[in-house]
Amino acid sequence: MMKAVFSGEMAALLHKEMLETWRDRRALLMAVCISLLCPVLLAGSMIFLVKMHSEEKTRLALLGGENAPLLAQRLRGPDLLVEELAAGEPRQLLAGDYDLVLQVGKGFGGDYRSLRAPELYLYVDSSGTGAGRAERHLQQRLGQLQQLIAGQRLLARGVAPQALAPWKLQVRDVSTPSSRGALILMMVPGLVLQMLFVASLATSVDTSAGERERLSLETLLLQPLPGWQVIAAKTLAVASMGWFGALLSVTALVTLLPLMPLAELGIQQATTPAGVITMILLLLPLALLVAVVQILLALRSQSFKDAQTQMSILQLAPLILLMLLGMSQVQLDNQYWQLVPLVAQQQWLKALLVGDPVSLPWIVAGSLATLLPAVLAVAVGARALRRERLLNAV
C-alpha cells in the first residue's frame, strides 16, 4: 500500500492535478479575493461599530424648560446633549436633528412644589434606527434624577433614604480579557472555516463534474491506475486550494487584529506566532475532509450546474452548525468534543485567538479523527469510479 502511495504513477497523477488546479486563474482569483475580503470586512465593521458607539450622542429637544429651570442642567451629560427651545412641533423636531423631544407641562412647578407627580411628555420616533437606544438613555438619566429627588425629600422630613432601600446591589465583572475575547471573536473561527469550503468550491466542481462533461475524466479512468489514487490526487489538489484560502484568511486576520479596537472592548490580543502556525497546521486535516466530500458530491451530481448548486448549499454547513451550537447553548467543556470534525477546529481556533492553552495530544487525536472519515470517503469515491453510470450522469 505504501509503495503504491509513493509510486511514480501517483506522483505523475498528483503533478497533473496540482498543475490543473493552480493553473486555473479564475478559481485562484476567487479564492484570493474572498479569503482577503472577508477579514477586511470583519475588521472594518468592528472599527465602524466601535467608533459609532463611542461617538454616538443623543440630541434632546426640551420644550417648556422654563417650567423646570434645573431639569436641563441635571440631564446634560457627555452623551446627552440637551437644547432648550421656546417652541416647536415635536414631529418636525424629530424629523430634523433631534433624537428625542421632552415637553414639560405648564403646571410642572406647582405640582412639583405641592408634592404631586407632574407630567413629562416624551416624544420619540420608534421607526428611527437609534430611537430605542436614545429612549433607554434618557429613561436611565431621568430615573437617576428621580431617585436623587426622592432621597432629598426624605432627608428633609427626617427619614433616611436607606430605609426604603433594604440592600444596595453592586455589580462586579470578574471576566478576563481572554473570556471577553472569546465572546467578541467567536465569529472569527467560523469565518476561517468557511474559507475552506468557499476557496475550494470552484476547483472541486471543475475537477469532478467539469472533467466529466469535458470527457477528460473518462480518459483518466482508462489509465491503469487504481481508483483510490485518482480520488486521492484530486483530494490533495482541491485541499491545497482550500487550505491556501484559509491560510490567507488567517494571515489577514492576524495582520488586522492590531488595527481593530480590541482594547476599547476590553480584549487583550494574545495571538503568538506559534499560535498562528498551529492554527494553519490544524486546518490541514479538515481541508482534506472538506475537499473529498466536495468531490464526491460533485461526482454524484447530474451536471456541472447541479454540482455548483450543491456546493453552494454545502458551503453554508459550517455556519449553520456553529450557529446551532451557539443558539442551543451546548456546553463544550467535555474534552471529547475535540474528536468531532469542524467543532474541534472551531474550539481550537477560538482558544488560540485569545491565548488560551490547547492540548497537543487532543489536537493530534482530533486531527486523526478528522482524517479517518477523509480516508473512508476516498475509499467510497474509488468504488464510485467503477460504476459506468458515473460517466453517463451528464
CA-to-CA gap between the ends?
33 Å
Strand order of the largest sheet: 2-1-3-4
- Estimate the helix proportion, in percent: 55-70%
Q: Calculate Rg over CA atoms.
A: 31 Å
Percent of residues in beta strands?
A: 5-15%
Low-confidence stretches: none
Based on CA inertia axes, which overall geometry fits?
Answer: elongated
Q: Count of helical segments?
A: 17
Number of strands: 4
User: Strand count, sense and closure of the main sheet?
Assistant: 4 strands, mixed
Topology, element by element:
Layout: H1 2-5, H2 8-23, H3 25-55, E1 58-63, H4 71-75, E2 80-85, H5 90-95, E3 100-104, H6 108-113, E4 120-124, H7 131-156, H8 177-184, H9 187-199, H10 201-213, H11 216-221, H12 227-256, H13 273-299, H14 304-314, H15 317-328, H16 343-354, H17 360-384
Parallel strand pairs: 1-2, 1-3
Antiparallel strand pairs: 3-4
Helix pairs in contact: 2-12, 3-9, 3-12, 8-16, 9-12, 9-16, 10-12, 10-13, 10-14, 12-13, 12-17, 13-14, 13-16, 13-17
Name the descriptors.
single chain; mainly alpha; four-stranded mixed beta sheet; elongated
